[in-house]
Design brief:
It is built from 15 helices and 10 strands. It is an alpha+beta fold. It has one domain: Cytochrome P450 (Cytochrome p450, Orthogonal Bundle). The protein has a 5-stranded mixed beta sheet with strand order 1-2-8-5-3, with helices on one face. The protein has a 3-stranded antiparallel beta sheet with strand order 4-10-9. A two-stranded antiparallel ribbon has the order 6-7. Mean pLDDT is 92; it is low at 68-76.
């Protein structure tokens, strides 16, 4: 079995790299060579990826992985040691029972029912963003005026983070997700966000308000370090992921006018269309990664204790054995069961919030600007191949 390496270079903006698609056609699991010399596994099949994510014999603790995060494969020993230190409260990088403790405190805040209560406010935010975009005139950058501000403002209001402070944490988030970011810059960005949130938590302890972080503070179950770690995870993940889905999803619809028209004109297709865009685009294009806690057999392949397993979710979500005609965007397709939000105990906590923002955002945009189109040639749209979360850096549009 020949070792393969992970790549983010795409031949077409909406499709996974051809090299990884070709691997899936050969089988669901492949030997993978990491930059540090460690030999692990790359999963490209849907059933295998789902099995790994659901199996408690695979750990999400970074100190067990080589390297801890695929996006940092080229970074030096200093940043790897920094990434090994999971801050209190940063439950994404923990296993049960630690992970379970933190997650239970938050699950009730992100239910379908709670998100329904937010719909009117998300509609107001989306409408205000579109008003400002229209007033600014054409052409406009959809990322700047629409895709980024909607989830940023929503998560800030939900957590109780002043939206006026967004400039620094948005800039630091770009550094965190940049594949070419220098070690000292990544550590600096993490330190700045943590320091900012630590100060915010202290202010909320003195003067609690009606927001999620204040509720956690007054609940008394977490100390300030834990609260800062939880806030870090929710703030960064809460705006980066949905922002890139709104931007890239709009680009994909513009490139598929029939699908755009269906999403714009048939309200009953919107929910399903959002699921299909999530599946088709799969913006988490590096990882997740797990480490085997013991010998585990998946799809006839024996994964030894201590070996790292990297999952290619974009390729798994294009597996034709699960989604026939998977390389075609079809907003009428039953796309439930995709792995974009993960699976198992680490399935994305904020997935219902992301769905709410997209179910409201896409139709609002397409109804306001029925003649929306690219303001540049497709080749000029800058893609986020250099980031661990895929999308578009900018999307120049006109109408």
């Amino acid at each position: 079995m020949t070792d393969v390496t992970l790549t983010t270079a795409r031949q077409r903006p909406f499709d996974p790299p051809d090299e990884l698609t070709d691997l899936r056609k050969q089988g669901p699991i492949h030997r993978m060579a990491y930059a540090d010399g460690h030999r692990g596994w790359l999963v490209t099949g849907y059933a295998a990826a789902r099995a790994v994510l659901a199996d408690p014999r695979f750990s999400n603790r970074p100190e067990l992985m080589h390297p801890p995060i695929p996006a940092r494969m080229e970074l030096n020993k200093e940043i790897r040691e920094h990434e090994f230190r999971v801050p209190p409260g940063f439950f994404l990088r923990m296993d049960a029972p630690e992970h379970t403790r933190y997650r239970k405190l938050l699950t009730g805040q992100f239910t379908v029912r709670r998100m329904k209560l937010l719909e009117s406010r998300v509609e107001e935010i989306a409408g205000a963003c579109l008003d400002r975009m229209e007033a600014a005139g054409r052409p406009a950058d959809l990322v700047e005026h629409f895709a980024l501000p909607i989830p940023s403002l929503v998560i800030c209001e939900l957590l109780g983070v002043p939206y006026d402070d967004r400039g620094q944490f948005q800039a630091d988030s770009k550094v965190l997700f940049g594949l070419d970011s220098k070690a000292e810059d990544v550590i600096g960005a993490m330190t700045r966000i943590s320091a900012y949130l630590d100060g915010l938590i202290r202010r909320k302890r003195a003067e609690p308000a009606d927001d999620l972080l204040s509720g956690l503070v007054t609940g008394g179950e977490l100390n300030d370090e834990e609260l800062t770690g939880v806030a870090f995870l929710l703030l960064v993940a809460g705006h980066e992921t949905t922002a890139n889905m709104l931007g890239l999803g709009t680009y994909a619809l513009l490139a598929n006018p029939g699908q755009l028209a269906a999403m714009r004109d048939d309200p009953e297709l919107v929910d399903n269309g959002v699921e299909e865009l999530l599946r088709y685009l799969t913006i988490i294009h590096l990882g997740p990664v797990r480490a085997a806690l013991e010998d585990v057999e998946i799809e006839g392949v024996l994964i030894r204790e201590g070996e790292a397993v990297t999952l290619s979710l974009p390729v798994a979500n294009r597996d034709p054995s699960r989604f026939p005609g998977a390389d075609r965007l079809d907003v009428t397709r039953p796309a439930a069961g995709h792995l974009t939000f993960g699976h198992g105990i680490h399935q994305c906590l904020g997935q219902q919030l992301a769905r709410t923002e997209m179910r409201i955002g896409y139709p609002a945009l397409l109804r306001r600007f029925p003649d929306l189109r690219l303001a540049v040639s497709p080749e000029e749209v800058p893609m986020r191949s250099d980031m661990s979360i895929y999308g578009v850096h900018r999307l120049p549009v006109t109408w």
